[in-house]
Write a structure and sequence with these properties.
Blueprint lengths: L8 E9 L15 E8 L13 H7 L4 E7 L17 H13 L3 E2 L2 E2 L1 E5 L9 E9 L2 E3 L4 E11 L3 E5 L3 E5 L6 E7 L6 H18 L9 E8 L5 E6 L5 H24 L9 E2 L10 H8 L3 E7 L13 H10 L6 E3 L10 H11 L6 E7 L3 H17 L5 E5 L5 E5 L7 E3 L6 E2 L2 H10 L4 H12 L3 H9 L3 H8 L4 H19 L5 H14 L3 H13 L4 H4 L10 H8 L4 H4 L2 H12 L5 H13 L1
Parallel strand pairs: 3-11, 14-19
Antiparallel strand pairs: 1-12, 1-13, 2-3, 4-7, 5-22, 6-7, 6-21, 7-9, 8-9, 9-12, 10-11, 13-14, 15-16, 16-18, 17-18, 19-20
Length: 603
């Protein structure tokens, strides 16, 4: 594909974790595995309208057990053994503040709904979610988008391992407040989508309310180019969005071309698997031999007119079939276009084709499955091909690390929603509105200008402070200490310490140290020394806070030390400062040391 399709429509669902504890209990947002686990088996139910959602039914058909790893920040609410508590008001005020920022109509009553989710990511089989507001506009430098809804929901479990019969999740992330901002499909290019997603992320970074972690912001991208809506789940990095959208557009373009040409040859015919373990008298394929040893059978079906469409350059219909089969736990499928491979040579390939009754335009599908499962495979393959041949590519797909997408399930509908009966309707009172008003962020440019004007930061440092989520911490610390010094500590000293020692001081520890230095008017060298001491493990916070540990070394003591130092040693101030600091386990003021060395040289 030479250029991105002009008829493309792109919409976003941006999910942001809020660092205020969990949404329906009092557990902290971070925890460690305890060694205990709980096993569940989830089944779907109908929504408020009596309809069973197609995506939930698709997940139930996998018939997998779910294992939940308990963590130190999980409780009976997370395990669905206790009713939820009152909604976290801090999380709600943050969602309302974001709504205010984009001109959203924030509701005065918040109703909690249950959204049926049967993939195991929620212990209860549903996710609690609330609409906070409708409408609003997100404006970037060259793009804008209309908001459909702002929702506040509980985050799901984090997947640890995905097997055919059992999937394992950690409870550590379950219940963390997640703000979802959904937009209209009014973006035309990947660049516009990236700009809008960045602007959404900037607002919560300005607020300083984003939870730390690799998955704290996740984007789902809705994409259409005339063949139905595809929801691409789990675009975790903004820089990946363009590549994913371009490759999805290429996939759909190749699919429609393959379908058109395949139809012209007469279509794919019937899917009818027959077992023949001896179609090749003596298998050389280790894969097939292992399957036979495990009691599986070799099942073969002709695929009329399919030669060249399953795996041939642009055309990868075989992957579409394989992805659909994986969802019902069938992974052993081989087709004509990918052979010779898997220990099957050309002669064996041709023998299989002849047995299936195939001609020069035909392909075949070979399954390695337990007896009886070939019928399930036939149904899935037929349904998958019929959907693709209808040129309706609408579905939910997962974003992969290589920029491709993989089939997950059919698109969800409104049939999976029903009211949460354990939580009363929440009235948005004056206190909530006032808190949200105070939290409402401006634009990134507004935040940068404020930091420049108030604290004298450069534009680059100010922007970095905001985009690394340090806005609140910086503003708090710089209100009682020199802003440029705090900026240096956050942006340079702490990253350097982490790179050198493998860890660095926490923001809470930094606040304590800044408080002491501010109270006693100690300079930046005391701060930097404390960062090194704690990061290296040579001292802990309690030891540093004792007595006058943070007070720079007295001039008298430094003077006596300098009397023993040669002129050559005194010429390297950085090394000299380090040696004196290590000798006396105290910070050394570099400006004071430099002055004393200069005075000595005059003498």
């Amino acid at each position: 594909m030479d250029k991105f399709p002009e008829n493309a429509m792109i919409g976003l669902e941006v999910h942001m974790q809020v660092n205020v504890g969990k949404l329906f209990c009092h557990c902290p947002p971070e925890g460690q595995e305890t060694g205990f686990h709980v096993d569940r088996h989830l089944r779907t139910t109908s929504g408020e309208g009596g309809i069973v959602d197609i995506s939930a039914k698709s997940e139930e058909m996998k018939n997998r057990s779910i294992r939940y790893l308990e963590t130190s920040n999980s409780c009976l609410v997370d395990l669905d053994e206790k009713p939820p508590e009152t909604m976290n008001r801090d999380a709600l005020s943050v969602a309302m503040a974001l709504g205010n920022s984009f001109g959203t109509m924030v509701l005065d009553r918040i109703s909690v709904m249950r959204k049926i989710v049967i993939d195991g990511s929620n212990t209860s089989g549903f996710q609690r979610t609330s609409v906070v507001g409708f409408g609003g506009t997100i404006k970037g430098k060259s793009a804008s988008s209309v908001i459909t809804t702002i929702c506040l929901e509980e985050d799901s479990c984090r997947k640890i391992e995905d097997g055919d019969s059992i999937v394992t999740y950690s409870l550590e992330r379950l219940g963390i407040p997640l703000i979802e901002i959904s937009t209209n499909p009014d973006m035309k290019t990947p660049e516009e989508a990236m700009e809008i997603a960045r602007e959404i992320g900037n607002r919560i970074m300005i607020m300083g309310m984003l939870r730390k972690g690799a998955d704290s912001i996740r984007q789902d991208v809705n994409f259409s180019m005339g063949f139905g809506r595809v929801e691409i789940k789990g675009v975790s990095k903004l820089t990946e969005m363009k590549n994913i959208l371009v490759r999805e557009a290429e996939r759909q373009d190749a699919l429609q071309e393959a379908v058109k040409k395949w139809k012209e040859t007469g279509g794919f015919g019937d899917i009818d698997f027959k077992r023949n373990d001896q179609v090749v008298e003596k298998w050389s394929s280790k894969m097939i031999l292992k399957a036979l040893e495990e009691g599986k059978g070799v099942y073969i079906s002709i695929l009329k007119n399919g030669r060249g469409f399953l795996k041939n350059g642009r055309y990868t219909m075989g992957r579409e079939i394989a992805d659909a089969l994986k969802l019902i736990g069938i992974r052993g499928i081989i087709h004509f276009d990918e052979l010779p491979a898997y220990g099957i040579n050309e002669d064996e390939r041709d023998r299989i084709l002849k047995y299936a009754g195939g001609g020069s335009k035909d392909s075949f599908l070979l399954l390695l499955v337990d007896p009886g499962r070939e019928q399930d495979a036939s149904l899935v393959i037929r349904e998958r091909l019929e959907k693709l041949f209808s040129l309706n590519f609408s579905e939910t797909r997962a974003a992969m690390e290589d920029g491709t997408t993989r089939y997950m399930r059919p698109l969800s509908g409104s049939g999976r929603m029903y009211p949460e009966t354990d939580i009363p309707i929440i009235k948005v009172d004056r206190d909530l509105m006032e808190t949200a008003r105070e939290l409402t962020p401006g634009t990134l440019q507004d935040a940068i200008k404020m930091l420049q004007d108030k604290f004298g930061l450069s534009g680059q440092d100010a922007e970095t402070i905001v985009l690394r989520g340090y806005m609140n911490t910086f503003s708090k610390l710089a209100s009682s200490y020199d802003g440029k010094t705090i900026s240096r500590i956050l942006l340079q000293k702490m990253p350097e310490a982490e790179k050198k020692f493998g860890k660095t001081i926490s923001l809470e520890e930094l606040e304590n140290i800044v408080s002491i230095c501010s109270k006693n008017k100690y300079g930046r060298y005391s701060l930097e020394w404390a960062v090194d001491m704690i990061s290296s493990g040579k001292m802990n916070l309690q030891k540093i806070m004792e007595g006058n540990t943070l007070m720079p070394l007295e001039t008298e003591t430094m003077g006596k030390y300098l009397e023993k130092v040669s002129s050559e040693e005194a010429s390297n101030l950085s090394l000299l400062q380090k040696k004196i600091s290590e000798e006396f386990a105290r910070p050394v003021d570099m400006s004071m040391l430099a002055g004393m060395v200069k005075e000595r040289q005059r003498k």
